[in-house]
# Entry
Amino acid sequence: MKNPNLIPEELIQKYWDAETSTHEESELRDSLASNYLGGSDLEVYFKMQHLYRQAKCSDQLSAKLEAIARENKPKLIKISFLTLRNIAASLVLVMGSIALFQYLSSSKANSNLYADTYENPEQAWQAIKSALSVVSENMDMSTDILTEEIIKLDVNPTIEQ
Amino acid sequence: MRAFLILFTLICIAFPCLSQEDGIAKHFGKYISQSNFEHTYVSNRMLSAILKSNANDLNPNSKDLMKEIKGMRQLSTRVQGKKFFEEFTQSLSSQGYENILQMRKGNGGVQMFLKNENRPNGELIIILLEGDYCTMTGFNGNINLENMTALSKSLNVKGAEFIPQAKKK
# Structure
C-alpha cells in the first residue's frame, strides 16, 4: 500500500530534469518539511539541502562572518603589459639621465672649468682689480671721445636754411 | 603614457637649470684646455672669501656692489690674437649679447658686451686686443653697468694692469 504522503518518483525525476512547475516544486519543499520521501535514494540529498537551508537561515552569525570575509578578501590588481612597459621605460630614462649628468659633471674638462685658479684671496683680488681697471679705463676713454665729439658739434654748428 | 611624457619633459627642462655656465665657458670652453690659451677663473666662493678677508681695499659701498658679482673668468692668448678677437666678437654678437662699446686704438681694439643686465644671470664680457695679445674677461652675476663702472673707479687703479700670466694650482 502506498503511503499517500509519498512523493512519486516521477516528480523527483522531473525535478532533476528541470521540468517541474512552480506548484510541483512547492510540493517538494513541503515534503522536505515532513522529512518523508519514501526511502528514495534522493532522500538524503533533499534532506541535506533542507537542513542546509534551515541552518543558513538560522545562523545569522555565520552569515555575517561570510559577509566580512567577502569584504576583506584581497583584491587582485591587474596591471596590463602596456603599463608595465611604460613604467620600465620611464625608469630607464631617469636612470640614464642621472648617469649622463654624473658623467658630465665629473668629467675632466668640467673639473678644469670650475676649479679656482688662485689659492688665496689676495691673488684672486689682484686679478679682479686688473680686470675691473680695464673696464674703467675703456669706459673713461669712450666717455672722453664722446665728449670731444659733442664739443666739436657745439663749436661748429651747421645751420640749414 | 601621459605620465611618461610629462616626466620626460620635466627632465629636459631641469637639465639647463643644472648647468648654469657663464658665457665664456659656454661658448669658448673648448679653448680652455688648449696650450696656447691662458685661463683664469675666480668662483663665487673665492669672491666671498675676498670680501671677508682683509685682502680687499674696498669701502662698504663698493663691497655691496662687489657682492652682486658671482664669478669672473678670463681667457687670453698671445698667438693669432686678431683672429680670436674677431671670432669672439662675432660669436658673442650672434648669441644675443648686446655690444655696448667698441673702440679701435692703435693696433688693437676693445669690444664690450652685455647680457641680461639687472638680472641674476647677467654677464659683462670685455674683449681686448693689443697686437697679437687678445684677452677676454667676463663677469657674471647681477650685473649693472653703472655699478660696475663705479666699482672699478673706486679701486683707483690706473692703466691696464691685467695679469697675462696666471698663477695656477
Notes: Confidence is low (pLDDT under 50) at residues 158-169 of chain B.
